[in-house]
Amino acid sequence: MIPFEYRRADDVATAVDTVARNPAASFLGGGTNLVDHLKLGVTTPEHLVDVTRLPLDDITATADGGLHIGATARNSDTAAHPDVRARYPVLAEALLSGASGQLRNLATVGGNLLQRTRCPYFQDVTTPCNKREPGSGCSALEGYQRYHAILGASRHCIATHPSDMAVAMVALDATVHVHGPDGARRVPAAELHRLPGDEPDRDTVLEHGELITAVELPPLPFAANSAYRKVRDRASYAFALVSVAAAVDLDGDGTVRDARIAFGGLAHKPWRARRAEDALRGGPATDERVARAADVELADAEPLEGNGFKVPMARGALTATVRRLAEGRG
Ligand code: SF4
């Protein structure tokens, strides 16, 4: 362990200023990912600013009928909140599928969004990894690829984003509230995370010193008919091979009026499936139509030698999820 300075922040402005002024400073949320990285030597900050005591843990209805979720709300509290469970069940299910109960009690909404890939080479400092050490190479290109990307990857990095919660938020058209040295701004959740390109060390569009303060879910009445499905190697405490977040609006005869779909486990970011949504609208939610919609979305997939199974797995996960919603969630 490398020595570092620790300070607990009392207000957002001081926290942002402290981190922004020092390139070797980081925010500390629940620590369920960052503390692992400190122990492994993946990151070596000089200064940690603990933001967990900031008054940002409120979950409240917004004036337009949406939901405001403070960045330091714990994952367990968010998953259990009555409005989340009733109006955005896809988010509750995604949170409950991620990690153990103990971790959910510590992990925050802001930290969950900013957790880093679980690519084994990223976490192993004895191996080359462009995300951890730019320019050093990508060990996964010729290595273990079971959990890696089939969409949007580059020759510099084929990692996937590990968050379940973020996939649900992207499907729900959430907006991320950010406070930085230049003031506040809002970022659509779908645009928060980046594809790797030639800068795989940058996971998000946030600049150093920008702090996530909240996430806002827009009013979306048919989000009450939403669900999250996670396919993984074990029944719990495992990251997604493939996951699907979906909300479907059906009329009385079963025609899809509208849909929101995002995939996890397929790319360096939660993958909003707008082409699949377009393909689903205007017809019945039959397995055949849903499978075709998945194929439209996955037409540009480039499976690797070690993860070709993800294409049929994603098709099957979307089909099963929409079937569940068409039958009334169950
Ligand atoms: Fe590193 Fe990305 Fe390659 Fe994994 S896939 S070794 S995170 S560069």
From TrEMBL:
<dbReference type="InterPro" id="IPR036318">
    <property type="entry name" value="FAD-bd_PCMH-like_sf"/>
</dbReference>
<dbReference type="GO" id="GO:0016491">
    <property type="term" value="F:oxidoreductase activity"/>
</dbReference>
<dbReference type="InterPro" id="IPR016167">
    <property type="entry name" value="FAD-bd_PCMH_sub1"/>
</dbReference>
<protein>
    <submittedName>
        <fullName>Xanthine dehydrogenase YagS FAD-binding subunit</fullName>
    </submittedName>
</protein>
<keyword id="KW-0560">Oxidoreductase</keyword>
<dbReference type="InterPro" id="IPR051312">
    <property type="entry name" value="Diverse_Substr_Oxidored"/>
</dbReference>
<dbReference type="InterPro" id="IPR016166">
    <property type="entry name" value="FAD-bd_PCMH"/>
</dbReference>
<dbReference type="Pfam" id="PF00941">
    <property type="entry name" value="FAD_binding_5"/>
</dbReference>
<dbReference type="InterPro" id="IPR005107">
    <property type="entry name" value="CO_DH_flav_C"/>
</dbReference>
<dbReference type="Pfam" id="PF03450">
    <property type="entry name" value="CO_deh_flav_C"/>
</dbReference>
<dbReference type="GO" id="GO:0071949">
    <property type="term" value="F:FAD binding"/>
</dbReference>
<dbReference type="InterPro" id="IPR002346">
    <property type="entry name" value="Mopterin_DH_FAD-bd"/>
</dbReference>
<feature type="domain" description="FAD-binding PCMH-type">
    <location>
        <begin position="1"/>
        <end position="222"/>
    </location>
</feature>
<dbReference type="InterPro" id="IPR016169">
    <property type="entry name" value="FAD-bd_PCMH_sub2"/>
</dbReference>
<dbReference type="InterPro" id="IPR036683">
    <property type="entry name" value="CO_DH_flav_C_dom_sf"/>
</dbReference>
